[in-house]
Design brief:
Layout: H1 3-9, H2 20-33, H3 35-49, H4 69-87, E1 91-94, E2 98-102, E3 105-109, E4 113-116, E5 121-127, H5 139-160, E6 167-168, E7 171-177, E8 184-190, H6 192-204, H7 208-213, H8 227-235, H9 252-262, H10 270-275, H11 282-289, H12 299-365
Parallel strand pairs: 5-6, 5-7
Antiparallel strand pairs: 1-4, 2-3, 4-5, 7-8
Helix pairs in contact: 5-6, 11-12
Length: 366
């Protein structure tokens, strides 16, 4: 199912995606790294993860991984990994296809590259276009790359389990542009923690068969269906929306609209949802804060009412300060007007007397 097409049919297309310029820049950098049979990539890997193996020469194997369909490409990749491991030399697999079971259904993954070492170790290579400045890159982007690579490591472990002499390394090679140039540099990232978290999450996922068994008879997600029918079909699968979904899921904007319409606290974020305990709607939270609902002995309700009282007190104090400030300004304006009038009168009288004296002097001279 193409969730992007489904979101468009529902009237909530996901307005995100990488720009064409970023795609072109990333593809150009990856082509540069893999040029000449991947000699630069193998050099970077050998410098950081070579161990005691002989340095890769220009004869590193680069097997052809083309096949029909994702299943065929995954089978061809598994065969190439077994052959390269048995050969006992360096091998570079460019865009291999890996399979990983997710909720009981196969998901096909395509890492940038996998390198087979002479000792049978397999290393995942991630090539990114964000820069590595002074040997350090953006922590959030490195973290995302590590989580992505951890999924590839899990998929490779399935193949390594049935390949004699194979071992999947938990250290991946992250290749990025150096400083502000287009020259490649690399860093080793340990993904053991991300691998453990991902593996635990995968084991806790509800199987697709179990989800499908609970759907009403005749449910379909065909984008050609009427909008109302399609909306009802999507609503039959309870979403677990959170703001973090906006960066990863094509249906996130549809789920957000539904969450906001229902007043669900999940729209405020997972951390807020966790703090609110049994309160699941924004209306319920406001009612509890106002003292209309909720058990006063509940710590969450007590905290909300305390926060509401503090807010009311702060607003009352701010209103009093503002009213006093307006009164002071009005009083100073009255005094200033009177003073200005008196000054004007005195000045006016002085100027009138001076004018009369001048006129009298003129008459005397006449």
């Amino acid at each position: 199912m193409d969730k992007g097409v489904l979101a468009t049919a529902l009237g909530s297309p996901a307005p995100f995606g990488q720009s064409q310029f970023a795609f072109m820049r990333g593809n150009a950098f990856e082509a540069k790294v893999k040029a000449d049979g991947g000699s630069e990539l193998l050099r970077l890997l050998y410098e950081r993860l070579g161990g005691g193996a002989p340095e890769p020469a220009g004869d590193a194997a680069t097997p052809d991984l083309s096949a029909a369909g994702p299943e065929g490409r995954a089978a061809r990749t598994a065969l190439a990994l077994r052959e390269a491991t048995a050969a006992g030399g360096w091998a570079l697999l460019d865009h291999p296809m890996l399979a990983l079971e997710v909720a009981g259904s196969p998901a096909y993954l395509e890492p940038d590259a996998v390198v087979v070492h002479p000792d049978g170790r397999w290393t995942v290579v991630e090539i990114k276009s964000f820069p590595m400045i002074d040997a350090s890159a953006d922590a959030s982007k490195v973290g995302a790359a590590a989580r992505q690579a951890a999924v590839y490591v899990l998929a490779l472990e399935r193949v390594a389990a049935v390949t004699e002499g194979a071992e999947v390394g938990h250290q991946v090679l992250l290749v990025c542009p150096k400083d502000f140039s287009n020259l490649p540099t690399a860093s080793v990232v340990d993904v053991r923690k991300q691998r453990a978290v991902t593996r635990r999450q995968l084991t806790r996922l509800t199987r697709i068969e179990d989800i499908a068994a609970e759907l009403p008879e005749g449910t379909t997600f065909d984008p050609a269906c009427a909008p109302d029918e399609l909306d009802a079909a999507v609503a039959a699968v309870p979403p677990a929306y959170a703001p973090e979904c906006l960066a990863a899921c094509e249906l996130a904007f549809h789920c957000r609209a539904k969450s906001r319409a229902e007043g669900a606290v999940e729209a405020l974020g997972r951390s807020v949802r966790g703090e609110l305990g049994g309160l699941t709607t924004v209306a319920g939270v406001l009612a509890a804060a106002a003292g209309k609902e909720g058990d006063p002995a509940d710590p969450t309700v007590a905290a909300l009412r305390r926060a509401a009282a503090l807010r009311a007190e702060a607003l009352e104090s701010a209103a009093a300060v503002r009213a006093g400030s307006i009164g002071d300004h009005a009083g100073s304006g009255d005094d200033g007007t009177g003073g200005t009038g008196g000054t004007a009168g005195a000045d006016g009288a002085g100027r009138t007397g001076s004018a009369a004296g001048t006129a009298g002097a003129s008459e005397g001279r006449s």
